[in-house]
Amino acid sequence: MNEVLKNKVLSRSFSVERASMAGLQAKMKRTIIVSNRVPSPHEKGATAGGLAVGLADAATPGSMWFGWSGKRALETSTKAEMVTADGVTYATIDLGERDYTRFYNGFANGALWPLFHFRSGLLMFSRPDYEAYRAVNRAFAKALLPLLQPDDLIWIHDYQLLTMAAELRELGVVNRIGFFMHIPFVPPALLAVLPPAAELLAGMSACDVVGFQTERDRLAYLDCAKAFLNVNPDREGRFAFRERQVQAVTTPIGIDADRFTELAERAELTGDAKRLNESLGERALVLGVDRLDYSKGLPQRFDAFGRLLYCFPQHLRKVAFLQIAARSRQEVGSYQTLRRELDRRAGDINGEFSDFDWVPLRYMTHPVKRTAIAGFYRRARVGLVTPLRDGMNLVAKEYVAAQYEANPGVLVLSRFAGAADELTEALIVNPFDADEVAEAIHTALTMPLQERQSRHKSLLAKVRHTTARRFCSDFLDHLNGGVQH
Ligand code: ADQ
Prior knowledge:
Blueprint: H1 3-13, H2 18-27, E1 31-37, H3 51-58, E2 64-73, E3 81-85, E4 88-96, H4 97-116, H5 127-144, E5 153-157, H6 164-170, E6 177-180, H7 188-191, H8 197-204, E7 209-212, H9 215-229, E8 238-241, E9 244-250, H10 257-267, H11 271-280, E10 284-291, H12 298-311, E11 319-326, H13 333-353, E12 361-364, H14 370-379, E13 382-385, H15 394-402, E14 410-414, E15 427-429, H16 434-446, H17 449-465, H18 468-479
Parallel strand pairs: 1-2, 1-5, 2-4, 5-6, 6-7, 7-9, 10-11, 10-13, 11-12, 13-14, 14-15
Antiparallel strand pairs: 3-4, 8-9
Helix pairs in contact: 1-3, 4-5, 5-6, 8-9, 10-14, 10-15, 11-14, 12-13, 12-16, 14-15, 15-17
The protein binds adenosine-5'-diphosphate-glucose.
Adenosine-5'-diphosphate-glucose is lined by residues 5-6, 8-9, 13, 182-183, 253, 289-291, 324, 326, 367-368, 370, 373, 390-395, 398.
């Protein structure tokens, strides 16, 4: 996974208003955030509105953020390096080169990522990779141990760290531990494909609270727990496991919507937005923004755009599709294949439909500044968010927050993104059906203003309700034992 992007996601996710969180923490205990990558305070300002803004809100004074520094060394470090900035302690360890390859590229991104995105055919399992995964989770636990205080709340994030809680328990840690799964969860029949399925579930279930993006994911986890751990969850999703009570909760992630709207407003005035405008002229913009990842359904999306041009020729020369697909995980083979596949399909579509003064599909893989992206969303008449499977998908929420309320664009959203559970006023599509997606783009391009406004109004209200701040406080309330799901 492109770790810089991932950090942005996490950073924004922890975007908790300082005042409110400070109050919360006074009532509660110190929060230790644990994630595979930790945003470095030195990266501040590196990208306008990205890490810089995210970091400011990521963790509140007094809290600690623990994880991998992003650096590779000869061996995985046993002791964390500490940096304090704005009252937040960043504690990081380096990963040994071999651990990085096997844990990160191997088991996390070569086995867990495809499986949890329902792509068992892409799963590459090897025992040495899995052993390295366990070893890195153990190394994280050991390096965190000396930093812990008795009352700390430990909040572990995502699929790279499924077994860390179990390692902490092994080391005698009795603090409350929470885990949040940012990506989807799979039903038992699919999890069974993974040889250490039961061990991974046991690892997660060493927590007090296990959180998911959607109710579907939470129920899938509970089904797996029943099937593999032989437990018996109650109606609230609580079950006893190894003398502890585990509770599964749904706490969907969000964005700081108001701040994103402001960013989009400011972005309109930038050179990037102006250049895009000049290049488009009067044409309607259809926009996709994703990491270059096979879960995002990019080849299918390109095909759908091709079908639009073929089936609805009234849009020829009147529309332009821009796909921003930031390169990620280039060391994993399936990502290299995807890149070649997209190059080919983009070439096919442009070869078929381009004119001497019009290129229908633009596709770029180099990084784009966050402000520029916000401005592009605002200019886009259609936001195309069509992953084949996605935990949530924050691009869908950012697109909604960036629109002009008086003249908003239309979101076309995959039913397999977690965001589709909330954002029901989008045009919901099956991304595997190119004709259905093409029809939805056509509907979006021809939708009357009043309908666009009314759909957008409902969507914006939802994006402003389920914010990053709410995500954090809901989860931490559960972890603090304050709220029952
Ligand atoms: P991701 O798979 O990375 O996150 P997503 O939620 O869409 O997916 O977040 C991507 C973020 O990166 C967005 O904030 C977007 O603006 C930004 N981004 C994308 N392309 C970019 C580019 N080219 N340049 C700069 N920024 C770019 C995982 C899960 C998701 C879940 C999140 C958070 O896969 O399902 O929503 O975590 O939980």
